[in-house]
From TrEMBL:
GO terms for biological process: aromatic amino acid family catabolic process to alcohol via Ehrlich pathway. Belongs to the TPP enzyme family. It comes from Salmonella enterica subsp. arizonae. Its EC number is 4.1.1.74. The gene is ipdC_1. CDD domains: TPP_PYR_PDC_IPDC_like. Its cofactor is a metal cation; thiamine diphosphate. Residues 6-115 form the Thiamine pyrophosphate enzyme N-terminal TPP-binding domain. GO terms for molecular function: indolepyruvate decarboxylase activity; metal ion binding; pyruvate decarboxylase activity; thiamine pyrophosphate binding. The lineage of its organism: Bacteria, Pseudomonadati, Pseudomonadota, Gammaproteobacteria, Enterobacterales. Keywords: Decarboxylase, Lyase, Magnesium, Metal-binding, Thiamine pyrophosphate. This is Decarboxylase.
Amino acid sequence: MQNPYTVADYLLDRLAGCGIGHLFGVPGDYNLQFLDHVIDHPTLRWVGCANELNAAYAADGYARMSGAGALLTTFGVGELSAINGIAGSYAEYVPVLHIVGAPCSDAQQSGELMHHTLGDGDFHHFYRMSQAISAASAILNEQNACFEIDRVLGEMVAARRPGYIMLPADVAKTTAIPPTEALTLPAHEAQSGVETAFRYRARQCLMDSRRIALLADFLARRFGLRPLLQRWMAETSIAHATLLMGKGFLMNSIRTSLAPIAPAPVAKRCVRP
C-alpha cells in the first residue's frame, strides 16, 4: 500500500520546484521522521554535514550558485548552531530556507519540560531569535502548513533573504494535497510615484551628463539584473565598475571596464574629469 502524501512531501516538492536539488543538514531527534521523506524523495538529495554551522554555510554557497538553498536542523541546540551562517546569508541577500524539526504540537501547547528547551515551557524562544534574520518565518500546524510553506518560500525568493520554518514532528506526518501549480511569488508593489520619479530623474541625468559611468554591486546580481546591465554596456560602451563585493559581476575584460573599486575617492577619480 502506498504511503499517504504528507506535509513533509509537500515541503520537499516545493523545494524542488524552487530549483533546490540538495538539502544540507544534521540529523536530530526531532527531524528523523522528516528525514525518511527526504531520503525517499525522487529528486531531492540529502547532504549530511559534520555540524549545523557547516550546513548553513554549505546551503549559503549552494544558494549563491543555484538561486536558492535549504538546510535542516533540529529544534534548539541544532538551529542555534546554524544561526551565525543564516545571519550571514541575511546580510548578503542569499535565500536559504532553514527547516527546523520541532517537538510535537501537543507537547508545545502544554508547555512540557523537554530537552533542547530552556525549561520554561516556552518553545518559541529560538523562533523569535530567527525572525530578526529572516525575510519570512512560520510555525506550521495542521491547518496552515501548506499555505505557510508557500508564503515563506515566496517571500524568501522575492526578498533574496533567508526563510525559517518550524516543522513539528506530528505536522510533518499530516496528510496534504500535492501542489498542482507552480509556486506564485508575491507581486511587487511599487510605492506610489516613486518609480516614476526615479525614471524621470535618471533619464534627465543621462541626457544632461557629459560623462556617464555605471557602478553596480552585488545586489544587482542577487536580483537577477546582470543580463540587463550587460546588454546596456554592450549597446552604449558605458564605463563601468563594481565595488569589492560585486567583483566579477560585470565584464572586466572589455575596454570600458574600470575594474573593482573600493574607497569613494578612487571612484570619484574614475568618473570625474
